[in-house]
TrEMBL record:
Record key words, sorted: Glycoprotein, Hydrolase, Lipid degradation, Lipid metabolism, Signal
Protein's organism: Anaeramoeba flamelloides
Domain of life of the source: Eukaryota
InterPro entries to which the protein is assigned, alphabetical: PLipase_B-like
One BP term from GO: phospholipid catabolic process
Entry protein name: Phospholipase B-like
């Protein structure tokens, strides 16, 4: 048994938030007015932002809107607050991740004109449909997401210094970071790899930087609880984290989840990881799949809704996993091609067998989406993992995954074997947290002497001279449960795993890459994120370290 069970040294220490910056946006006569230092429920929206990145590894942003205002006014005001309050961190994060993108995904280090043209055309397409379909629920809700984005742009441009100004299209591209993992390749055929002419190591190196995350859902013994967890993987230069709580008060009853808690980054209007806890009783997570059959990218056109927008639409509108997957598959962009797992806690009662509809899975590729109720699979196996390899055989085959290599085998890849061995022993919340932080690559034979093969990967620890050695891997862990999710609460930690592994420090890291604004050492504790929407109070609590 290789799962480390750590002791909790501190259960409740101190409230995290005491010096949050409060701001309010007022709306009158068609004009928005931003006022800092005020948290006024009479405004169109009010927010608190606590920049605690240097102390706990996360900033904290919460926004509440006023039901007395039109829905689109609420959304715009919320976006304006986020853009204004997080503008400095947004600029830092954009600098860091786009430097990484241009060095690892875009030959020549310059965004192709085709990418800019695609995004410009795409935004126009979405706006045209919002305008031309004023009674269509789908486009009405899409309009709320775009209104929030327009507010983000206004707030950012209002507060950012002249030297850091960004255009609307700059910020649309910024929020398209997940879609960009596919988009540059899709719209520029000359950038598509020829996997037939690549060695196995070259293919593994190429796909590494597109692998994004580990997810795990655990149904404990006796059906006592369901834990819902995810580790985000990306460059360590992207660890400019913000935990967010959106509390909208929309009038339109098509909105089933007006409130949500999610891990994110400054100025992203979506998670990117992704990990959401929603007031509808749903939770959503994803991990990224690869496209080996690059001819599929011929199906990617700008007349679509990008993945990050479709996630927000589905989160708003769905009251079940079936609804979520049906809404999400509309207007498929074929970019940020992920496996999604949608858990419906309303279908679960502790101590009882989960009802049908408790867990849905969806996988997207260009031109095709497959989805199914996999509750029976969860009950039979006791867990459902997610690790960058398709669950559905049709998606696996159409995507062009190698069928003769266990590294890309859904059943036999290293993470599949590690999770299969360890998951059955996960029956407490602390066990689940430990599971998500697990990496014992030097001694666990299932890791095959590779620190990238664990749920909490650490590619920076690969021995010198080996391929795929980069400051890349699991950045965090987020875990919720039946009781926590009822109150939109999540426990999370922002640090590459330091369980049985050295603490990550930029000052001793042998790699050169951008990490503007980030603390040197990532040795942060678990935090319980808790926001009281009735009082507007942040009740977040610092918990234990993994040591």
């Amino acid at each position: 048994m290789f799962l480390k069970i750590s002791l909790i040294f501190v259960v409740f220490l101190l409230p995290l938030s005491c010096l949050a910056t409060s701001s309010t946006v007022y709306y009158s006569g068609g004009k928005y007015t931003y006022k800092e230092g005020v948290y006024d429920e009479n405004g169109a929206a009010r927010a608190k932002y606590d920049d605690t990145l240097d102390t706990v590894g996360w900033g904290r942003f919460v926004v509440q809107t006023n039901k007395d205002f039109d829905d689109n006014v609420q959304a715009h005001a919320a976006g304006l607050l986020e853009g204004a309050l997080t503008h400095t961190r947004l600029f830092q994060h954009r600098h860091n991740i786009f430097d990484w993108f241009l060095h690892h995904y875009v030959p020549g280090g310059i965004w192709p004109a085709a990418v800019w043209n695609f995004l410009d055309t795409n935004l126009a397409y979405i706006r045209d449909n919002i305008k031309n379909n004023p009674t269509d629920d789908y486009w009405v809700v899409t309009g709320l997401v775009v209104s929030q984005f327009e507010g983000l742009t206004e707030g950012y441009q209002l507060m950012a210094p002249v030297t850091e100004q960004l255009t609307e299209l700059d910020l649309w591209m910024y929020n398209t970071a997940g879609d960009l993992l596919d988009l540059a390749t899709a719209v520029s055929p000359e950038m598509r790899p020829n996997f037939d002419e690549m060695t196995r190591d070259e293919i593994m190196a190429y796909t590494l930087f597109r692998d994004h995350c580990t997810g795990l859902i655990r149904l404990t013994e006796g059906y006592q609880d369901i834990y819902f967890a995810q580790d985000a993987w990306f460059t360590f230069g992207s660890m400019n984290r913000v935990f967010k709580h959106y509390d909208f008060n929309y009038k339109n009853d098509i909105i089933k989840a007006p409130s949500m808690t999610f891990s994110s980054y400054p100025g992203f209007l979506f998670s990117f990881d992704d990990h959401y806890t929603l007031s509808s009783g749903l939770c959503a997570l994803e991990t990224t799949n690869e496209i080996f059959n690059t001819t599929l990218y011929d199906l990617v056109v700008p007349q679509c809704v990008l993945e990050w927008v479709r996630v927000r639409i589905a989160n708003y509108m769905a009251d079940s996993g079936e609804q979520w997957t049906s809404i999400f598959e509309k207007e498929n962009s074929g970019t940020y091609n992920n496996q999604w797992l949608i858990l419906d806690y309303k279908q679960f009662t502790p101590g009882e067998k989960p009802n049908p509809g408790t867990l849905w899975a969806l996988e997207q590729i260009p031109g095709f989406v497959q989805k199914a109720d996999i509750t029976d699979h969860l009950i039979e196996q006791g867990y459902m993992p997610s690790y960058n390899i398709p669950y559905f055989k049709d998606i696996f085959k159409i995507s062009g995954y190698p069928s003769d290599d266990t590294f890309w085998s859904y059943e036999d890849c290293p993470r599949a074997k590690i999770i299969r061995r360890n998951a059955s022993s996960v029956n407490t919340f602390e066990h689940m947290k430990n599971m998500m932080r697990y990496n014992n690559w030097e001694y666990d034979p299932l890791s095959q002497k590779d620190p990238g093969n664990a749920p909490a990967s650490r590619y920076d620890l690969k021995p010198k001279g080996e391929s795929r050695r980069e400051a890349f891997g699991a950045l965090d862990s987020k875990v919720t449960s039946y009781e926590l999710a009822k109150n939109l609460m999540v426990e999370a930690i922002s640090s590459p795993t330091y369980v049985q592994q050295p603490i990550f420090k930029f000052s001793t890291c042998p790699f050169i890459f951008e990490h503007v604004g980030l603390p040197d050492e990532y040795h942060f504790p678990w935090v319980k994120w808790d926001f009281n929407s009735e009082t507007g109070e942040l009740n977040d609590q610092i918990l234990d370290y993994d040591d």
